[in-house]
Amino acid sequence: MRRKRVLPLAALMLCTPALAGTAPAVAAPQTAPAAEPAAAPTGPLRILLTNDDGYNAPGIRKAFDRLTAAGHDVTIVAPLTNQSGTGTKMMSGAPTIAVKHPEPKVWAVDGTPGDSVAFGLAEVFAGKAPDLVVSGTNFGPNVAGLATHSGTVGGAVAALESGVPAIALSTGGLSAPDPVTTVNAMGPTLDFAVKLIDRLRVRARSGPLLPKGVGLNVNHPIVGADGKGTAAGVATTFQDPQNFLEPDFTDAGDGTWKVGVKVALKPAAKGGDVEAVAAGRIAVSPMNSDWNTGPADHAVTSALIAGLRP
Known about the structure:
- This protein is 25% helix and 24% strand.
- By secondary structure, the chain is of the alpha/beta class.
- It is globular and about 50 Å long.
């Protein structure tokens, strides 16, 4: 079964301060039409780097430095402020979106990750799409039902919808770690990302980096007390169907409710991303950019509606 998307753990997210100052408002970018995947270049890649924690968050800055050090041409086009949990939301109805260009190779979009990618493809990379969109690395895991609502994954989905190969990167285990430990663990996450991207480039040869419409959701566990440990391995996984974050409503007695979040982790699906991350392995799940399921589900639906008439 094909699966997609992701919701980050709100309790694990760190807020990113907004960029001070004013900015010109530009028209809300329209998502570029889907295109055939371009052939992978034989050398370093042109990468659009985005995230949902904000353009100046530690994860995206570390990703910029590490990918640049690996020889790639990296441009940050990311949200101005923290957009964790926005999923695939795009502000397509907004008349304008403010965009800032605070430093070379960095664009800050006052919108969602999807808006950022749309602006990047339409304006920053106008005329020639990037070879790859990388979204992350994110604070906290984006596995199971969390993936469906993740802004990190949402940024990658926006790229896939426009025919651009994409990878979502997240750093975190299934419990809330110390933020410093998570930042430390971003180093191993990005070391793996560099290896993965190089593998894609070499294997693609004259073809696309990834099959059309298919991206990768990569979840790197936190290993060791300091977060600098080595993962136990790499696993090809799928999105575990469970959603282990449950809303917790408390009636305040005055017509309002306080809302919290409870973690109710259920037994992990064998071969899923939750199982892999819990075992200290890197979970790599293929994802698509639409809501289609597999042939078996299509057959079940056909049987269900057989004989029905308007």
